[in-house]
Write a structure and sequence with these properties.
Two copies of one chain form a homodimer. Chain A has about 230 residues and is of the alpha+beta class. Helices cover about 15% and strands about 30% of the residues of chain A. Chain A folds into two domains: about 70 residues, Arc Repressor Mutant, subunit A, CATH 1.10.10.10; about 130 residues, Umud Fragment, subunit A (Ribbon). The interface between A and B is large, with 62 and 63 residues. Chain B binds a DNA duplex (30 and 30 nucleotides) through α3.
DNA sequence: TTGACATATAAACAAATGTTCGTGTATACT
DNA sequence: AGTATACACGAACATTTGTTTATATGTCAA
């Protein structure tokens, strides 16, 4: 167990400053910047105490390189877990388009990677089904055509990019002949494919394999009222 | 709208390298390090293309300082959204119990605040409807009794604790006479209350106000398959 | 006091690093 | 052809920056 109080006041200040600096600027401070902020006249003193912080396990230094610092332990009262600033946040999923009954799904590759930076949404990890966020995307549902699948207008569906599916999985499929996009449970049968609505009160849809392009597997749904 | 393909191959490589470098080392690369990795002979060329990336909005540079780089936009295929410092972390909401047709809802006060710390789930901010996570709780849906409300077995509903409701809001209500819990849209009418299922194919339920205890307002629903 | 040790200071040094400038090479357009 | 533009190259330059050395100060214990 690391004891923050074993550090001198000066070292604690240095740690705090380094953390705040990285939060603000996105990269670590230089030795001289630390010195100025912490009222340390000599760079060698900063260097000395930085090595102390290394010994204490709070930071790691990359020798010879400028700003070669990184915080690797939590700073009590200041920061929680260490993290790399300036990098993308976890669990942000690309919101690549919308899904409606009468039009095909717009996937990133279809639209040539025209993804705006704002078009990302936070998704809790339990909705990613263990998949990497890079292979996952999200669509906004438009229209009430998917009530049979328990999905309504405004819902956001989280999908994993894939062109095949196992029985029972819920898939996003484009039916060229019918000119229709649908979200249903996938079952391969003798001669055709059965697309089963989640709501048992509705009838399944039987389509020929040639008339069923699977665009992705539905991992989860988020619905927000109002 | 940012277009990743508008960047030259070289610029895309630079972005990717910068991202990976920061992931590995915890601080940004120097101009010369970028040049070596991306087979660019001259530092001025790196500098030139870095400024292009600034113009394109992918990075921000801090002039004159070494390694003064930071990535501020998503890199398609590599990284997702940029982290915005100061944004609230994914909110943790108390998962206080389950909701099923034939039994009342167990609210925290009913069970004496015996909430285990494990019984919290991450909920993205957009599903909290602007409410504080303290007044919000979550329930696991058991059974298929709420298909009429487009909610199925296994869904997690996010609610705000409140005993009244405005027309149109979706509420969790306990009906003492019927010994039933239900999730429906709330409409106060002349003599009674109309509880309207989200799926219009189902019939509304009319109850006397004395037979309708509102437990909370439904803010959102999370559904995870498999 | 003496000595050992941790910490601090200032100065000098060497290397790393961002910047700038002159020039060259395509490509597209007039 | 001529011109403009985008991109690239190499070299020189000025800072920034990490490192090292010699010296000083403080504390604590023998």
């Amino acid at each position: 167990m690391k004891d923050f109080n074993l550090l001198s006041r000066r070292q604690q200040n240095m740690l705090r400053f380094m953390h705040n600096y990285m939060l603000e600027r996105g990269f670590p401070p230089s030795i001289r910047e630390i010195g100025e902020e912490c009222d340390i006249g000599s760079t060698s003193v900063v260097n000395y105490n930085l090595n102390k912080l290394v010994d204490a396990g709070y930071i790691v230094r990359s020798g010879k390189v400028s700003r070669g610092l990184r915080i690797v332990a939590a700073i009590p009262g200041v920061a929680q877990a260490p993290r790399v600033i300036g990098l993308p946040a976890p669990n942000q999923v690309a919101l690549v388009g919308r899904i409606a009954a009468g039009e095909p799904i717009s996937l990133p590759e279809d639209i040539g990677h025209h993804i705006d930076e704002d078009d990302y949404i936070a998704v809790p990890p339990q909705l990613l089904g263990g998949y990497d966020e890079g292979e996952v995307f999200a669509l906004t549902v438009r229209g009430d055509s998917m009530v049979d699948s328990m999905i309504q207008d405004g819902d956001i569906v989280i999908l994993r990019r894939q062109n095949t599916a196992d029985n029972g999985e819920m898939v996003a499929a484009w039916l060229p002949d019918d000119n229709e996009t649908t979200l249903k449970h996938f079952y391969r049968e003798a001669d055709n494919i059965r697309l089963q609505p989640a709501n048992m009160a509705y009838q399944p849809l039987y389509v020929h394999p040639a008339n069923c392009e699977i665009k992705g597997k539905v991992l989860s749904v988020m619905r927000s009222f109002r």
